[in-house]
Design brief:
homodimer, DNA-binding, alpha+beta, 8 helices, 6-stranded antiparallel beta sheet, 3-stranded mixed beta sheet
DNA sequence: AAGTGGTCTAGACCACGGG
DNA sequence: CCGTGGTCTAGACCACTTC
């Protein structure tokens, strides 16, 4: 046998999906049907389905059936827009959403707390691991869909005792607040990763298996030191990052540019 | 029962990994051991392990055992470096690699062909789906590790019959080649997605389940029209994208900036 | 040869969603 | 109620790695 039976079944089903024989939203044959169709045990059929689930091609709904996943990507977060004058770079709390069809992000939860720095946070902020940092956490929905988990980390010696450590919302934005504290932002580095969600992210985004998350780690610097780390976590199935450099023809620009 | 048994087993094992009781590279108990330890059937144990595999936490090696996955991320691709003068933007065939430890990318395969445009390509280039486009395909390794799948698509009316359609390597780069054809690049848009790999990508990168890919779609424009679509596909477990804006302190800059 | 994970079977009961 | 997917069991044989 060249290939395992469950892989053959998965391949046949995958073919039917990519060829359009099974269209998005269509129901696959039930598991007992597939057992008869491919002369396999139910466990083998489920192994085949698990492969397709992990590729994000299908989803199962208990009591209903198994369905071809329609890939929806309505939200685009604007990583950065670069034109001749770099002073125009935004640096808001969350990356702006572009595209006309989606609604505005709404914050469904917001907390400020002090906690010991995780290793990755400590490394970015150049402090000792476990040293206290101020964390501002935001959960955001768009049109009722959870789309963004946002954590901002500030070194204790910069933000301790300031409005960053206590205030709920900061109207003028934390970049301005940092500038008023004497830490003008001179630049930032974005590091973009993709990985599978942890249990917290799985829970908040209500993700099915086979959906990764996109993580943007934005480290902001004054002229001499790191002053902030902002970590954006997006669901990979609904969010795409955009990044515009130079001049592009007018008609290709999303409305909000 | 509040939670399925296989989920409880997975949770216990996940705890041991995150707490460091099971360190990276450590071997987990064998499946028969776990069967005894948790009083479950082997299939249930394997369901638990499948969860952790899909989160990228462990890997199995037939005949050897199951091991805690060490997360290696040695390669960083530079998406864009933005300073005061935006003319300094690179626009090479592949995004440059930064960081001193990794070797140089080597092209292991390179082909040029003409084929009908897939819908996503047609949309980006503003041509009819199925219309012919010229595709330049590159596979790249770093230190023997496959890291990049790169496809560049050119509209037929621009690149047809030119060196872009025939030549092997283009020494001066395709951006310059396009400029010599009268299509000076005025700007580009990057759209960054994350998803699970398809079978081609799985095969080239030799990925285990639970590892997503990062896709960068870079559409380049002249002053009036799209002139190129370049699609970069990176493995999510070894590659991170970087993006630098403004001025950051010298010591934080990777060597190649 | 022995131990590991990979594949497969046959059957059971449960939980959910809809008529 | 019935059909759907979700969970679980017990046992079998195969393929790979090491000794």
């Amino acid at each position: 046998m060249a290939q395992a039976k469950y892989q053959q079944i998965a391949e046949r089903l995958r073919d039917q999906i990519t060829r359009g024989i099974l269209a998005p939203e269509d129901r696959l044959p039930s598991e007992p049907d597939l057992v008869r169709q491919y002369d396999a045990s139910r466990n083998t059929v489920r192994l085949a389905l698990a492969l397709l689930i992990n590729q994000g091609l299908i989803v199962t709904r208990q009591g209903l059936g198994t369905y071809v996943q329609a890939p929806p990507r309505p939200f685009t977060a604007l990583l950065s827009r670069v034109r001749a004058q770099p002073s125009a770079h935004h640096a808001s709390t969350a990356l702006p959403v572009i595209g006309s069809e989606s609604g505005k992000p709404e914050t469904v939860r917001f907390v400020v707390e002090t906690m010991p720095a995780m290793p990755s946070v400590a490394q970015a902020l150049e402090i000792e691991p476990g040293a206290p940092v101020i964390v501002r956490r935001t959960l955001q929905h768009i049109d009722g869909v959870p789309w963004l988990l946002l954590n901002s980390y500030f070194p204790m010696d910069i933000a301790g005792g300031t409005e960053l450590a206590h205030a709920g919302r900061i109207p003028q934005g934390s970049v301005k607040a940092l500038a008023e504290l004497g830490y003008q932002q001179a630049g930032f580095v974005d590091e973009i990763d993709s990985r599978m969600p942890d249990s917290r992210e799985l829970d908040f985004f209500d993700l099915s298996t086979g959906v990764p998350v996109i993580v943007v780690n934005r480290t902001s610097y004054s002229t001499s030191r790191p002053i902030r780390l902002t970590r954006y976590v997006y669901r990979g199935d609904r969010v795409r990052l955009a990044h515009v450099v130079g001049t592009i023809p007018e008609k290709y620009r999303p409305a909000e540019y």
